[in-house]
């Protein structure tokens, strides 16, 4: 029997387990995918902890994960876009991606270009669509100076590159060990912490910041609006939802863009060598607890991926 990640109650990382489950069967309009890689995301840890129960309550036993890439094993009735053996990138809204096999809606899949590695493909959906939505939300473009807080995180590493591709000058807030990667991708690195406003102003070509992307939380929205005088309409946060009401900034994330279509666009950029998605570490499915422990420690460059 195939294996899948499960948890039977809200709690810490120790509630996660890998168990044998019945083989999933695709229904009409669905595809059974043999998973080759499945990314993990901070939001999944919050769901497991019960912190998002009011928005996304878990039904127990619950699976985990949205991002995935794999090979089509079977197709359900009415599916003509894919056939067994096809390599695909996709996602599920059923919290089931961290498994050896998963049923996916055909409309939530896109072909995987051969040049895109499995681990990158499996880590792409949540971070990638969120980064696309954030960059679009603030209208990043030529002549702009854009600051990205959390520039080395899963969303940040993609957002800084997309803003740069849009023609903006990009300042990435990150810890010193990640500055070399940022510089290599034509991003101006700035260390966060005390004095960050002065360092941002010094790094900005004109001393002025036009847009701000917050993937971290804390006081960054207030810093952007009050200290850097960025218009609220050009600030987007995916963390500080209380600041959205207080300052009138945006809170657009992955739900604001088409899923499979955006995945296809990102995959083509990766295949063309225009977008780099760094993989911090990969773990076997059986080591899911270790993977989430490392995620919780933070200070990652890019993504952590499970390999079933």
How many structural units, i.e. domains?
2
CATH class label of the largest domain: Alpha Beta
The topology string of helices and strands comes to: EEEHEEEEHHEHEHEHEHEHHEHE
Largest sheet: 7 strands, mixed
CATH domain fold name of the largest domain: Quinone Oxidoreductase, Chain A, domain 1
Task: Write down how many β-strands occur, each being a DSSP E stretch of 2 or more residues.
Answer: 14
Q: What is the assigned CATH homologous superfamily of the largest domain?
A: Medium-chain alcohol dehydrogenases, catalytic domain
Beta-strand content: 15-25%
Give the CATH architecture of the largest domain: Alpha-Beta Complex
Helical amount: 25-40%
Unreliable spans: none
Tally of DSSP helical segments:
10
What is the CA-based Rg, rounded?
Answer: 19 Å
What is the end-to-end distance?
Answer: 13 Å
**How confident is the prediction overall: mean pLDDT?**
96
Structural class category: alpha/beta
- Give the overall shape: globular
Keywords:
Quinone Oxidoreductase, Chain A, domain 1, globular, 2 domains, 308 residues, 7-stranded mixed β-sheet, 29% helix
Description:
The longest helix is centred in the middle third of the chain and has 13 residues, at 125-137. The protein is 29% helix and 23% strand. The protein has two domains: 3-124 and 277-307, Quinone Oxidoreductase, Chain A, domain 1, CATH 3.90.180; 128-255, NAD(P)-binding Rossmann-like Domain (Rossmann fold), CATH 3.40.50.720. It contains ten helices and 14 strands. Strands 3, 4, 5, 6, 7, 13 and 14 form a seven-stranded mixed sheet that branches. It has helices at residues 42-49, 118-122, 125-137, 156-165, 179-184, 196-203, 220-227, 241-247, 259-271, 288-297; strands at residues 3-6, 17-20, 30-39, 67-75, 87-91, 101-105, 109-111, 145-149, 169-173, 188-190, 211-214, 235-237, 279-284, 303-307. The chain is globular, with a radius of gyration of 19 Å. Helix 3 (125-137) crosses helix 9 (259-271). It is an alpha/beta fold.
């Amino acid at each position: 029997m195939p294996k899948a990640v499960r948890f039977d109650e809200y709690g810490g990382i120790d509630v996660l387990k890998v168990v044998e489950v019945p083989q999933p069967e695709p229904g009409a309009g669905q595809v059974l995918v043999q998973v080759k890689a499945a990314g993990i995301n901070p939001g999944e840890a919050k769901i497991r902890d019960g912190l998002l129960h009011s928005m996304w309550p878990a039904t127990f036993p619950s699976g985990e994960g949205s991002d995935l890439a794999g090979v089509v094993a079977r197709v359900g009735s009415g599916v003509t876009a894919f056939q067994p053996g096809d390599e695909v990138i996709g996602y599920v809204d059923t919290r089931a991606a961290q498994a050896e096999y998963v049923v996916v809606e055909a409309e939530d899949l896109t072909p995987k270009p051969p040049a895109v590695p499995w681990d990158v493909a499996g880590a792409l959906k949540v971070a990638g669509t969120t980064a696309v939505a954030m960059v679009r939300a603030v209208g990043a473009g030529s002549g702009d100076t854009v600051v990205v807080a959390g520039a080395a995180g899963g969303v940040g590493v993609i957002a800084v590159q997309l803003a740069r591709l849009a023609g903006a000058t990009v300042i990435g807030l990150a810890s010193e060990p990640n500055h070399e990667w940022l510089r290599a991708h034509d991003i101006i690195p700035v260390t966060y912490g005390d004095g960050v406003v002065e360092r941002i102003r010094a790094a900005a070509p004109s001393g002025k910041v036009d847009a701000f992307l917050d993937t971290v939380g804390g006081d960054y929205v207030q810093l952007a609006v009050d200290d850097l005088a960025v218009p609220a309409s050009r600030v987007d946060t995916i963390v500080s939802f209380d600041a959205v009401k207080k300052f009138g900034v945006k809170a657009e994330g992955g739900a604001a863009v088409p899923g499979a279509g955006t995945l296809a666009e990102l995959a083509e950029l990766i295949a063309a060598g225009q977008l780099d998605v760094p993989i911090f570490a990969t773990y076997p499915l059986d080591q899911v607890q270790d993977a989430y422990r490392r995620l919780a420690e933070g200070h990652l460059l890019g993504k952590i991926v499970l390999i079933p």
